[in-house]
């Protein structure tokens, strides 16, 4: 039973990691003198990119979590997984704070502020995902 659960988990993780390649990389573009509707579509496109980036990151988090859980079970070292989970939480707080000050810089124009925040969020999510992809 335990072997089949581990096999099922591993299969799910592999499928999640592979699924990141099924997303087409949509490029969001905004012209200089964009209308309100064009800016709205651009922000929606950025939201789509954020969701895709979070899905890929979630896959990598689950993969690393599975690996660290397996390592914890074999070594008995419970600190590694706790530190990993803390790093996930701290990264989420960092992204929020790092992008908030960029947002505030662009106010009172709420559209450019929102765009700035979303671009920042995409970049930092991808940066952390790249760090998760590196073998340990």
Could you walk me through the main structural features you see in this protein, from its secondary elements to its overall organization?
The chain has 136 residues and is mostly helical. The protein has helices at residues 2-19, 36-75, 79-106, 110-133. Helix 2 (36-75) packs antiparallel against helix 3. It is elongated, with a radius of gyration of 19 Å.
Shape: elongated
Mean of residue pLDDT values: 86
- Low-confidence region ranges: 19-23
Give the count of helical stretches: 4
Structural class: mainly alpha
For the biggest sheet, the summary is: none
Gap from first CA to last CA = 29 Å
Q: In percent, how much strand structure appears in the residues?
A: under 5%
H/E series: HHHH
SS elements, strand count? 0
Query: Helical content, roughly?
Result: over 70%
The value of Rg in angstroms is 19 Å
